[in-house]
Specification:
- The chain is α+β, with helices and mostly antiparallel strands and about 280 residues long.
- It starts with a strand and ends with a strand.
- The longest helix has 14 residues.
- Helices cover about 15% and strands about 45% of the residues.
- It has an 18-stranded mixed sheet that branches.
Amino acid sequence: MKYVFTKMQGCGNDYVYIDARKYSIDDPSALAVKISDRHFGIGSDGLILVAPSEVADGRMIMFNSDGSESEMCGNGIRCVGKFVHDIWGVKKDTLTIETRCGVKTLKMQIAPDGSAYGACVDMGQAILDPQKIPVDLPGDQIVDREIKIGNETARITCVSMGNPHTVLFVHDVAHLNLEAVGPKFEHHAIFPQRVNTEFVEVIKPGLLRMRVWERGAGETWACGTGTCATVVAACLNGYANKGEDVRVILNGGELVINYTDEHVLMTGPAVISYTGEIEI
């Protein structure tokens, strides 16, 4: 079977995008594994199918590189917005995209030539209830909570942006060995659906440096939902202020997040790397 695809990235968080209007894919999980392989496939953090929706301008169906399906992808949804705008030709300044965690609204950033180069996404409310994240710990919120990781301890703040995150504030994020520590959090018993883990250094109030270990993908160059969760955690821990733009530096670029009780707004780029055809 041959598939026409579009390779896109937001801050280096790269996915393969396939138009689900054109293809009926029996096993998208297996396809995600094959396509994502950086030696024998196209190479990506996962596969995103752009599908029609009965309730929005388009629908995002997202799979990690290990084949697991995810509820939401912040960098991915901006690229889906660009796909719908530029490739499907839905030339609206504001688009709606259906995801597994609801319909999200995107205010597209439009270049003079009419193409979209980014978006501001209303990611909805941050979820702090441990049962809804989910995280198996007592209390109304998990903020700066100490847990045991192997023979060591760590202080975590847990947030869901439609998918589960745990955030740790560290002194030197650049020299962390995420390959060693990331899986310990991802597969910890307190996270029944596994977890995305953000390691964050506070450069100054309102400016953060983040690295992320994503469940099902390992370390990626950026994570949109993780960046949102990071800013929520920063506000809860006194490192940033609600209602103010916070810059987050990632391996692949920068995102700007604004957190209020009602919304988390994420602004960042959406870029087409190339298009092609692959035979599976």
